[in-house]
Write a structure and sequence with these properties.
The strands form 3 sheets. Strands 6, 7, 9, 10, 11, 12, 13, 14, 15, 16 and 17 form an 11-stranded mixed sheet that branches. This protein has a 4-stranded antiparallel sheet with strand order 1-4-2-3. The termini are far apart. The radius of gyration is 24 Å and the shape is elongated. It is an alpha+beta fold and 308 residues long. It has 3 domains: 60 residues, Structural Genomics Hypothetical 15.5 Kd Protein In mrcA-pckA Intergenic Region, Chain A (Roll), CATH 3.10.290; 94 residues, Pseudouridine synthase; 125 residues, Pseudouridine synthase (2-Layer Sandwich). Helices cover 19% and strands 30% of the residues. A hairpin with a 3-residue loop joins strand 6 and strand 7. Helix 1 packs across helix 2.
């Protein structure tokens, strides 16, 4: 139970707005829900969120324990790069779906996080992790997850404001000319295949991808990619649109057989290598990095051995 006394300078303020300023760990929407359910009283009585406060009023706030998620915790191993009370950064392996959906009711990152963090304080009253961005199932690398409501709000705003720097390593087919550049298009659903995205839709959302060739290895180029936006399948769509699809990406590009020193990869060679942001509570600059996974590393080594 939190007990507060309204100071003279807060007289005339709305109850929900004033509480939001005093309780930064709770969103205003969450506070409105608590007020509506009777978990906030003023002078001992339930009130409405729009109540105008008077100096000296006694405000009591009780936050009930978070409700357990309907999702089942699963002991799936995670490679944690950083963790504190608000934030968790991890190196997601390829093949791991981020969130339960049709066809993937279990065995997801969210199931793993519920087991890894059994005492989550809850987001919007539910004991669950805050997924603020995603990686495709077969894309590996750095992801950040919110553990508190404050972190969830701050990270959502940071991604929306493009204040998060996201860098990837990608292996693509062919040699890019010029070797670096910028892809800027709309990205939306493909009119011919609703499971795919398109860089030339009739309507869509702006997407910006910056790329630089770091190594050319015969039929394949290794790129460093930075995305300013976070559209679904953005890098894969833009690379295919440029005529250099990601190696192993059978959904968006033709994969020329016989051009590699072994079988074609079983997944797209795309890895979230580095992510930089401000800590949601302290504002401290943080950078998380994840090394190239074994499949990409081994393919690069085999290609390098073929170069005279």
């Amino acid at each position: 139970m939190t007990n507060l006394t309204v100071p003279p300078e807060a007289a005339g303020h709305r109850l929900d707005a004033w509480l939001a300023s005093r309780c930064p760990d709770l969103s205003r929407a969450r506070l409105q829900s608590l007020i509506g359910s009777g978990h906030v009283t003023v002078n001992g009585r339930p009130v409405k969120a729009a109540l105008r406060l008077g100096a000296g009023m006694a405000v009591s706030l009780e936050v009930p324990p978070p409700a357990d998620s309907e999702l089942r915790p699963e002991a799936i191993p995670l490679t944690v790069l950083f963790e504190d009370d608000d934030l968790l950064a991890l190196d997601k392996p390829s093949g791991l779906v981020v969130h339960p959906a049709a066809g993937h009711a279990s065995g997801t990152l969210v199931n793993a996080l519920l087991a890894h963090c059994p005492s989550l304080p809850g987001i919007n009253g539910e004991r669950r992790p805050g997924i603020v961005h995603r990686l495709d199932r077969d894309t590996s690398g750095v992801m950040v997850v919110a553990k508190t409501e404050l972190a969830m709000r701050a990270l959502v705003e940071a991604f929306k404001a493009r204040a998060v720097r996201k860098e990837y390593a990608a292996m693509v087919w062919g040699t890019l000319a010029p070797p670096s550049g910028r892809a800027e298009t709309l990205i939306g659903r493909s009119p011919r295949d609703r499971k795919k995205m398109s860089a030339t839709p009739a309507s869509g959302r702006p997407a910006v991808t910056l790329y630089e060739t770091t190594e050319t290895l015969g039929p394949v180029s290794l790129l460093r990619i930075r995305i300013e936006t976070g559209r679904t399948h953005q890098i894969r769509v833009h690379m295919a649109w440029l005529g250099h699809p990601v190696v192993g990406d059978v959904q968006y590009g033709r994969q020329p057989a016989g051009r590699l020193p072994g079988p074609l990869p079983a997944r797209q060679m795309l890895h979230s290598e580095r992510l930089s942001l401000a800590h949601p509570r302290t504002g401290k600059a943080l950078t998380f990095t994840a090394p190239l996974p074994e499949d990409m590393r081994l393919l690069l080594e085999s290609l390098r051995r073929r170069i005279p």
